[in-house]
Design a protein that fits this description.
Structural class of chain B: alpha+beta
Helix content of chain A: 10-25%
Shape of chain B: globular
Oligomer: heterodimer
Radius of gyration of chain A: 22 Å
Number of helices of chain A: 7
Distance between the termini of chain A: 42 Å
Strand content of chain B: 15-25%
Radius of gyration of chain B: 22 Å
Strand order of the largest sheet of chain A: 3-2-1-7-19
Structural class of chain A: alpha/beta
Distance between the termini of chain B: 43 Å
Largest interface: A-B, 50 and 57 residues
Shape of chain A: globular
Number of helices of chain B: 12
């Protein structure tokens, strides 16, 4: 079995698969396994998985140790260039160029930050503009300081954590600028990273221009209306030499697409069933490549499930996969499509095998108080769950029982 | 210390370097100077990468002559330099019957310029050729081609170096004084003497001519902004697709594929105050989006990965082709050869401009023999961008290996900015815009090439990226 990516999802998948007897190779493009955990030196990881608060590197170390104990092999500085429909993987590394055809593949490439370039914000292209994650790597792993006075664009978790990190490094953070009326990151990060450090959060604002030709000299910010358009007369210049951009994460699915897997435009990841099988037989997906998780622990838990099923597939491929593009996850019967009602941004999995219970993960499009999520199969209520508060930043889950054999469709909606 | 050369070329862009390469065919010593820290930082690296067949320029002008001749020479030059030359073809699309009236005039214009294979395309054929394009009818020029302008400039520079030229980057001209037989050029890097000075200074060429006591030219820097689309963008044309040229000048916002598989949208046409104004603007980027949508309704704005701007070296305001290229020896300052007003189609015309200037220079050095071992092609160590078969991947989006990054850093010009790496091996040009590779290249610069953190730049001096090591601000 081959796992692409040694982050929290990939390592969990690898360890779980090896535990059940599979021979597992993890291919990691970085020098060290651990993925983004390695640059997340703050704590708060592991509360679900290990029952204690760990730093990212501590969390990664536990996972790496566990994977090694289970006999997982790791190939570092190695990149999977392509995956074919028959699972042939093309890999390059300093050791050369090779092709493998494993019995199952787990995709766990994670996600990348939406770039400043893609925002088409006007200005000359001065130095001093960094993705928040790139700045985190530079500061925490490479010991390089990015600037003296910063504005953070976007209040996603990485942006919030980096605001605090810059202050701890002796820099000033003028503002965290967020175009929505609420923060993009977890409530605990707003409290611990901004409020505790007196860093102002400018909600309903955006950066309309970057200033400076050589090095960044400032940003022009403006209040936005409900449509996200700048309101005339509200523009002002904030002096800064650094702009960190944290405006969203994109599941990194170039490989997945190159393999021809069916994608979900809403989640940004491949379509899967409750076994985390993509539309390509024997290819599974988990962690942030499937959909962006809030917590590493959740990505790891998903990884475990993917690893378990992938190992089972590698041992004993289940039926139907050679003849239909959509594998029949649980033997006979077609997979049941999952659709979502208004107010839901996405639901994973996107299809369900009958006869097997499942957990549906979802995000709402906008914050909601006191709402109930209802899951129906062919109009019949399967399950429901009340929530006191749901926000786009917080991934939520609802469990459903096994679907009857003749189910035609499942609908997830907000009451 | 004064260095002496036969010829000093000011400006290491396509025109300066292509000219130096032609001059070097004879045994003539050449220095090429540029104020920026790398070659091709002006309009040469800020354009569409298009080799225009020449149907749009006004017949009878020098511009028309040099464009048509240049684009025909370009194919051979690219073959010699091992630069991919992709004849994708150009479509000028009329949105409706009113606009269609303009197409026969364009075709006649092209015929007058000596083009023989222009043809009109009807609605059905247009839909077949480019299903993503909304249009009524079109004019098709199969000769329209694209090249990678970064690679072209770098290969020209390699070729000049291989034939003994000096290339002095980061060297700004501060003064030009006539000597009894030649010029003394004061630069930020010292004084240079040369018998002939070639002014290939792009937007700054009018200034250079004035400083030398040559003809005075007005300067109307004209900015063009672009959007860059991801290589995976769908519903975009495979050929170059232009609207009917707008009356206010320029070619109109168009789609251009690049040899790397991306798509460019633009450029806009805006007169700006500064020759160096490479900023993009909110209004124009929004307009590019909407005009692109009109030409190509399926275009998805989320495919945009970057935006940039270049400045055209216009010497008169007005419609496309209003002012002609100036490629001649100055009458007021003999020994100064001016290439002034080289706006679009400057890239297409560069080989012909080079040929013309080399003739003028050659006349002064008629006694010099032909260089014995002129190397027309790139030096053996040069590599073209692309994935290599092995090695650690440093740039995930463009699949650039560590070996390729090291080769780029070890370039003979000593250009070590991130932009210099990007131009040479594409690291940082992809959809993540360097978030992945930049920290890794920084590590390589520090630990494998011994560059101090404070000296690591985005685009040369003035674009320093870091304040130093962590913890320093706390002391």
């Amino acid at each position: 079995m081959l796992v692409v990516g040694a982050g929290p999802a990939g390592l969990a998948a690898a360890a779980e698969a090896a535990r059940s007897g599979a021979a597992v190779l993890v291919v990691e493009r970085d020098r060290d396994p651990g993925g983004i955990l390695n640059q997340c030196i703050h704590d708060g990881f592991g509360l679900t998985l290990f029952g204690e608060s760990l730093t990212g590197p501590e969390y990664a170390t536990r996972q790496i140790d566990e994977a090694r104990r289970q006999g997982v092999r790791l190939s570092q500085n190695a990149t999977v260039l392509s995956i074919r429909r028959d699972r042939t993987c093309e890999i390059v590394s300093p050791r050369g160029h090779e092709r493998l055809r494993p019995g199952a593949v787990v995709l766990a490439m994670g996600c990348r930050e939406r770039s400043f370039g893609s925002l088409a914000i006007p200005g000359a292209r001065p130095a001093g503009i960094y993705g928040a994650g790139a700045a985190q790597r530079l500061i925490n792993l490479q010991g390089v300081m990015v600037g003296r006075r910063a504005v953070i664009l976007g209040s996603g978790d990485i942006g919030l954590i980096m605001a605090r990190r810059l202050v701890l490094e002796g820099a000033e953070v003028a503002y965290v600028v967020e175009k929505l009326p609420y923060a993009g990151g977890l409530a605990r990060n707003v409290s611990q990273c901004l409020n505790d450090f007196d860093i102002p959060l400018a909600l309903e604002h955006k950066v309309v221009e970057v200033l400076g030709r050589g090095r960044l000299s400032g940003v022009r910010i403006a209040r936005v209306d409900e449509l996200g358009q700048a309101v005339g007369g509200t523009e002002r210049v904030v002096e800064c030499d650094t702009l960190l951009v944290s405006v969203g994460l994109i599941p990194e699915n170039e490989l997945t697409r190159s393999a021809g897997a069916a994608m979900d435009g809403a989640s940004g990841g491949p379509q899967v069933d409750q076994r985390l099988t993509t539309s390509i037989p024997g290819v599974f997906a988990c962690g942030n490549v499937l959909h962006v998780h809030d917590l590493a622990d959740w990505a790891s838990l998903e990884g475990r499930r993917a690893g378990e099923w992938a190992a089972r597939y590698a041992r004993e491929p289940w039926t139907g996969e050679e003849t239909t593009p959509m594998p029949r996850a649980a033997g006979p019967g077609k997979p049941v499509p999952v659709s979502r009602g208004t107010g839901l941004k996405y639901v994973v999995p996107q299809r369900l095998a009958v006869g097997e219970a499942a957990t549906l993960h979802f995000r709402v499009s906008e914050p909601r108080r006191r709402t109930t999520v209802v899951v129906k199969a062919d109009g019949r209520r399967l399950s429901s769950k009340p929530f006191a508060y749901l926000a786009p930043a917080e991934l939520a889950a609802v469990e459903i029982p096994a679907l009857p054999e003749d189910t035609r469709g499942v609908l997830v909606s907000l009451d | 210390m004064t260095a002496a050369y036969d010829v000093a070329v000011i400006g290491a862009g396509v025109v300066g370097l292509a000219t130096a390469r032609e001059i070097l065919r004879r045994d003539i010593s050449v220095v090429v100077m540029d104020k920026d820290d790398d070659v091709g930082r002006g309009a040469s690296g800020r354009n569409s990468g298009v080799i225009h067949s020449g149907f749009a320029v006004a017949p009878g002008t020098l511009k028309a002559h040099l464009n048509v001749r240049g684009s025909r020479l370009m194919r051979a030059v690219c073959a010699e330099l091992n630069v991919p030359f992709d004849e994708v073809g150009t479509l000028v699309v009329a949105a409706d019957e009113d606009e269609a009236d303009a197409l026969p005039r364009l075709r006649d214009n092209g015929v007058a310029n000596g083009l023989t294979d222009l043809r009109m395309i009807d609605t059905d054929e247009l839909a077949r050729l480019e299903p993503s394009v909304a249009g009524h009818v079109a004019l098709f020029s199969p000769e329209g081609a694209i090249i990678n302008p970064f690679t072209f400039v770098l290969r020209l520079a390699d070729c000049c170096l291989a034939n003994g030229a000096s290339i002095a980057v980061g060297t700004e001209v501060e003064g030009l004084s006539p000597l009894r037989d030649g010029w003394q050029v004061a630069t930020s890097g010292g004084v240079i003497e040369a018998a002939v000075v070639v002014n290939a200074a792009d937007v700054n060429a009018p200034d250079i001519s004035s400083v030398a006591g040559g003809e005075r030219y007005e300067s109307f820097p004209c900015r063009g902004e672009y959007l860059v689309l991801d290589r995976e963008a769908r519903n975009v044309p495979r050929r170059m697709v232009y609207p009917v040229p707008p009356s206010e000048g320029g070619l109109g916002v168009h789609f251009t594929p690049t040899t790397s598989g991306n798509t460019l949208i633009g450029p806009s046409t805006e007169y700006v105050d500064s020759q160096e104004d490479h900023a993009t603007s909110g209004q124009v980027l929004a307009r590019l989006m909407s005009e692109a949508k009109a030409l190509c309704p399926g275009f998805d704005p989320t495919d945009v990965i970057a935006s940039f701007a270049g400045v055209r070296a216009k010497i008169s305001k007005g419609a496309y082709g209003a002012a002609d290229f100036v490629v001649e020896e100055s009458r007021k300052a003999p020994g100064l050869i001016n290439a002034v007003g080289i706006e679009s189609p400057g890239l297409s015309s560069a080989p012909a401009i080079a040929e013309r200037i080399a003739e003028l220079v050659g006349a002064r050095f008629a006694d010099r023999p032909v260089r014995k071992h002129f190397a027309a092609g790139p030096v053996a160590t040069s590599r073209l961008p692309g994935a290599s078969a092995e090695g650690e991947i440093i740039c995930r989006c463009e699949q650039v290996t560590r070996r390729e990054v090291l080769d780029a850093l070890d370039n003979p010009l000593g250009a070590r900015s991130l932009a210099a790496v990007k131009a040479r091996c594409r690291a940082g040009m992809g959809r993540c815009q360097g978030s992945f590779c930049m920290p890794r290249i920084v590590d390589i610069l520090r630990h494998e090439r011994g560059v101090h953190i404070e000296d690591i730049t985005l685009r040369g001096p003035g674009t320093e990226l870091f304040t130093g090591e962590t913890k320093e601000l706390l002391r």
